[in-house]
């Protein structure tokens, strides 16, 4: 049993426009030293998948810088490895007229040649808007044993307010009976978490059919029209899970990382490490008078002031007398002396000048864009 992985880092960029203005959702920083795409790549690598395609659209310079040749995930290989798949446009089409893809199916149509060159039996597809540590090997095992055409990974969860989800209904044998889009769901439901497994030959047949019929939506034009005709199964994931559907979701999930149990469930799973790009940074320096409580602090920082209930990325400097509470500070943020921050998210290379007081709220964190000086 062999499998190839496909990751969509751009599909949900519009959910957090503040953070994806200059990057893909997959390259959004998380947990002090990771990017959101790390969870999808690590899940596949931990399952023994050594060929992964990343279907890009735009703003993927930071993604290229993060992934590099894939050596940090053991994917720097002559055969297989990780491959960037930019959107396909012929010389006879006008990209400015909106010819780039806008749906998952349109993105897949641009990768047909990639799949035709593959020899693997199965395809694992994943988005980057979900934070979890799935045992992809077990999903593949169940998919093969069941003989399903597609296996959808689902999770019993209560969606956050305003979140649009796909509710998956199934019978007692795990056969999908319906998939319904819904918003503002206030009860616990089984939702599709944007990870699926299918046969490579089945996917190629679907893509051929889509080209012939002019289909644009994988879920509406392919899956929903064939429920009951094809064999669609579910795989219920029961581990740690969070979905990034808004800036508030991102902030809430970052704050949940301050719970040691949450970190253990996400990063401490035996034989399923979350891998990321390694940087040879010096250890964080805690100066005299520094006070840090209940926080995640990456390497390479200098802490002179007070940090409470915060996530601090690499290279951050918190000046003397500064107070940082309930914040997420991206790489190389510089907080000068006497500054007071509460519920603030700073992007990379932000400077907070002396004695500035900035505050948001848990339900609406205050965001400061990249390279901004306040």
Keywords:
seven-stranded mixed beta sheet, UDP N-Acetylglucosamine Acyltransferase, domain 1, Spore Coat Polysaccharide Biosynthesis Protein SpsA, Chain A, elongated, 374 residues, alpha/beta
Structure commentary:
There is one protein chain. With 374 residues, the protein is of the alpha/beta class. The chain has two domains: 3-267, Spore Coat Polysaccharide Biosynthesis Protein SpsA, Chain A; 285-368, UDP N-Acetylglucosamine Acyltransferase, domain 1 (3 Solenoid), CATH 2.160.10.10. The chain has nine helices and 28 strands. It has a seven-stranded mixed β-sheet. The protein has a five-stranded parallel β-sheet with strand order 14-17-20-23-26, with no helix packed on it. A five-stranded parallel β-sheet has the order 15-18-21-24-27, with no helix packed on it. The radius of gyration is 22 Å and the shape is elongated.
Question: How is the secondary structure organized here?
Answer:
Blueprint lengths: L2 E6 L20 E2 L3 E2 L1 H10 L4 E5 L5 H7 L13 E5 L18 H6 L2 H6 L4 E6 L2 E3 L3 H11 L3 E8 L6 E7 L5 E8 L5 E11 H14 L4 H9 L5 E5 L4 E3 L3 H10 L3 H8 L17 E2 L4 E3 L2 E2 L4 E2 L2 E3 L2 E2 L4 E2 L4 E3 L2 E2 L4 E2 L4 E3 L1 E3 L4 E2 L4 E3 L6 E3 L6
Parallel strand pairs: 1-4, 1-6, 4-5, 8-12, 14-17, 15-18, 16-19, 17-20, 18-21, 19-22, 20-23, 21-24, 22-25, 23-26, 24-27, 25-28
Antiparallel strand pairs: 2-3, 6-11, 7-13, 8-11, 9-10
